[in-house]
């Protein structure tokens, strides 16, 4: 008795190959959907003992503190760099950073501790 191909076997192989290709393409799309613009991440430490992290993006920063993560937009500054969300203000001038938040003591003389690209 000879083994004859079953009807539809070639069609099934094509469907499986197509499914595998689509699954791979979907995975590639999903991985690129979450890419961000190049950024640098800097950790800051203040004399008060407070620590926070700033991720510098193209037109804003992502500020991470013990209270959460906040997006602050670029603001006009007389000198240095200034970012705010209308409540918090992060100001960087040279090597010194300052963080102002409603209801908190202003963190001054904060210095960069590390940087990651």
UniProtKB/TrEMBL annotation:
<keyword id="KW-0732">Signal</keyword>
<keyword id="KW-0449">Lipoprotein</keyword>
<keyword id="KW-0564">Palmitate</keyword>
<feature type="domain" description="C-type lysozyme inhibitor">
    <location>
        <begin position="44"/>
        <end position="105"/>
    </location>
</feature>
<dbReference type="InterPro" id="IPR018660">
    <property type="entry name" value="MliC"/>
</dbReference>
<dbReference type="Pfam" id="PF09864">
    <property type="entry name" value="MliC"/>
</dbReference>
<dbReference type="InterPro" id="IPR036328">
    <property type="entry name" value="MliC_sf"/>
</dbReference>
<feature type="signal peptide">
    <location>
        <begin position="1"/>
        <end position="30"/>
    </location>
</feature>
<keyword id="KW-0472">Membrane</keyword>
<protein>
    <recommendedName>
        <fullName>C-type lysozyme inhibitor domain-containing protein</fullName>
    </recommendedName>
</protein>
């Amino acid at each position: 008795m000879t083994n004859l191909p079953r009807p539809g076997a070639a069609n099934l192989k094509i469907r499986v190959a197509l499914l595998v290709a689509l699954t791979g393409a979907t995975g590639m799309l999903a991985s690129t959907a979450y890419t961000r613009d190049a950024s640098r991440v800097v950790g800051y430490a203040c004399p008060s003992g407070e620590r926070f992290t700033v991720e510098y993006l193209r037109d804003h920063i992502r500020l991470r503190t013990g209270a959460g993560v906040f997006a602050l937009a670029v603001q006009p500054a007389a000198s240095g760099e200034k970012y705010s969300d209308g409540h918090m203000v992060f100001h960087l001038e040279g090597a010194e950073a300052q963080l102002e938040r409603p209801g908190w003591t202003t963190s001054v003389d904060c210095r960069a501790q590390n940087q990651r690209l």
